[in-house]
């Protein structure tokens, strides 16, 4: 679907920071059919991936060499500065305090109390992803956390998110909500993930066939960390691109238009 405006507190953008943008661009262009043109020098070559002429995601350089390559999810806010104050007051840590990105918006990067990194986006000329929830676009943001209850409290304080939890124990799944609408998900970090790995936000993209996508990811130089499996609304794959950034793909049981 095409979208031009995001509600307050709703994830609105995703981008990948990569130590080799050329490799990342080639990989995602081949996997999702994105058109990724070189960005202007004043933004360090940060590039916008488009699909059907609409902005789908960003591909940027690795800003901090000490940090691993990663996909970052951004939440739409009315004021990055006010939200940043709420983050620190609630036990989060600011990695990049609010700053202006030319005339396109104001952003910040932070970690929640469990170490999961996520961003803020205060839109100006760039409102966020212009195409979502359809084949080869971003469709879902999911938090894998070491402390589900603390995460509920933190994100409620920062973004006003509600939480609906299905099931009990390690297999329970929580949907974060805004105005009663599900906008992101959360679950306990799986025991299969390294204990030393902090909590993490994962960006998911839609595919026509999860099993075929897993084969294609490997063929294009990426790797599969979680082989295709049925989970809730569809069949998912946990993957890593050739530069080391983790992401997910999903084939919905009821495919979006």
Written account of the structure:
17% of the residues lie in helices and 43% in strands. By secondary structure, it is an alpha+beta fold. Strands 2-3-4-1-5-8-7-6 form an eight-stranded mixed beta sheet. An eight-stranded mixed beta sheet has the order 10-11-12-9-13-16-15-14, covered by helices on one side. The longest helix is centred in the N-terminal third of the chain and has 12 residues, at 21-32. The termini are close together. 42% of the residues are buried.
β-strand percent reads 35-45%
- Form type: globular
Give the N-terminus to C-terminus distance in angstroms.
8 Å
Q: Mean pLDDT, nearest integer?
A: 95
Helix and strand succession? EHEEEEHEEEEHEEEEHEEE
Largest sheet: 8 strands, mixed
Properties at a glance:
257 residues; alpha+beta; eight-stranded mixed sheet; 16 strands
Short précis:
The protein has 257 residues and is an alpha+beta fold. The protein has helices at residues 21-32, 80-89, 148-159, 210-219, and strands at residues 11-18, 35-36, 47-51, 54-61, 70-76, 93-101, 105-111, 117-123, 138-145, 162-166, 173-178, 181-188, 200-206, 223-231, 234-240, 246-252.
């Amino acid at each position: 679907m095409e979208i031009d405006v995001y509600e307050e507190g709703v994830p609105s953008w995703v981008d990948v920071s990569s130590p080799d943008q050329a490799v990342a661009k080639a990989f995602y262009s081949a996997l999702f059919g994105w058109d990724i043109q070189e960005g202007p020098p004043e933004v360090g070559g940060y590039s916008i991936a488009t699909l059907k002429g609409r902005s789908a995601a960003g591909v940027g350089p690795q800003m901090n060499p000490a940090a691993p390559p990663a996909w970052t999810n951004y939440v739409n806010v009315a004021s990055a500065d006010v939200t940043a104050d709420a983050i620190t007051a609630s036990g989060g840590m600011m990695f990049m305090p609010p700053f202006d990105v030319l005339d396109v918006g104001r952003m910040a990067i932070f970690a929640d109390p469990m170490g999961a990194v996520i961003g803020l986006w205060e839109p100006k000329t760039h409102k966020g992803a212009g195409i979502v929830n359809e084949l080869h676009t971003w469709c879902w943001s999911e938090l894998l956390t070491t402390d589900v209850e603390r995460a509920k409290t933190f994100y409620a304080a920062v973004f006003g998110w509600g939480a609906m939890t299905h099931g009990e124990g390690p297999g329970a799944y929580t949907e974060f909500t805004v105005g009663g609408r599900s906008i992101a998900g959360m679950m306990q970090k799986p025991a299969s993930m390294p204990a030393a790995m902090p909590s993490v936000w994962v960006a998911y993209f839609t595919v026509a066939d999860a099993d075929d996508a897993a084969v294609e990811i490997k063929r294009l130089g990426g790797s599969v960390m979680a082989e295709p499996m049925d989970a809730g609304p569809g069949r998912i794959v946990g993957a890593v691109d050739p530069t080391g950034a983790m992401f997910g793909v999903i084939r919905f049981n009821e495919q979006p238009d």
